[in-house]
Amino acid sequence: MSIDKDTAAKVAKLARIRVEAADLPALAEEFNAVLGFIEQLSEVDVEGVEPMVSVTPMRLPRRVDVVSDGGQQAKVLANAPDAREGFFAVPKVVE
């Protein structure tokens, strides 16, 4: 696939990048160079290579999944307009 200056102008417009008409041929050449590199990558034999998430073979540390009350009751209720007995107090809505 080859990118011409009209396609380069359309890509620039979609990307909301102002490119002068004189610079469109150079931009089209840059796009073609990128596409050429991508075509080179598709030629690489990756048969038997496992996909990687990271370049370093390590797992992320995980915390222990423990059920708790959070231990922040005072902080949570600090900005409550009305708190009673450790809970939010709200107006009665059902008779």
From TrEMBL:
- Report the record's Gene Ontology biological process terms: glutaminyl-tRNAGln biosynthesis via transamidation; regulation of translational fidelity; translation
EC code(s) of this entry: 6.3.5.-
Q: Which InterPro entries match?
A: Asp/Glu-ADT_sf_sub_c, GatC
Q: Does the keyword ATP-binding apply?
A: yes
Q: Does the keyword Nucleotide-binding apply?
A: yes
User: Keywords in UniProt for this one?
Assistant: ATP-binding, Ligase, Nucleotide-binding, Protein biosynthesis, Transferase
GO terms of molecular function = asparaginyl-tRNA synthase (glutamine-hydrolyzing) activity; ATP binding; glutaminyl-tRNA synthase (glutamine-hydrolyzing) activity; transferase activity
Report TM segments.
Answer: none
Which reaction is catalysed here?
A: L-glutamyl-tRNA(Gln) + L-glutamine + ATP + H2O = L-glutaminyl-tRNA(Gln) + L-glutamate + ADP + phosphate + H(+); L-aspartyl-tRNA(Asn) + L-glutamine + ATP + H2O = L-asparaginyl-tRNA(Asn) + L-glutamate + ADP + phosphate + 2 H(+)
Top-level EC class, please? ligase
> Short name of one Pfam family for this protein?
GatC
Checking SUPFAM superfamilies in the record gives: Glu-tRNAGln amidotransferase C subunit
The record describes its quaternary structure and partners as:
Heterotrimer of A, B and C subunits.
Q: PANTHER family in the record, alphabetically? A: GLUTAMYL-TRNA(GLN) AMIDOTRANSFERASE SUBUNIT C, MITOCHONDRIAL
As for what it does, the entry says: Allows the formation of correctly charged Asn-tRNA(Asn) or Gln-tRNA(Gln) through the transamidation of misacylated Asp-tRNA(Asn) or Glu-tRNA(Gln) in organisms which lack either or both of asparaginyl-tRNA or glutaminyl-tRNA synthetases. The reaction takes place in the presence of glutamine and ATP through an activated phospho-Asp-tRNA(Asn) or phospho-Glu-tRNA(Gln).
Q: Which family does it belong to?
A: Belongs to the GatC family.
Kindly provide the name given to this protein in its UniProt entry: Aspartyl/glutamyl-tRNA(Asn/Gln) amidotransferase subunit C
Q: What is the lineage of its organism?
A: Bacteria, Pseudomonadati, Pseudomonadota, Alphaproteobacteria, Rhodobacterales
Name the gene that codes for it. Answer: gatC
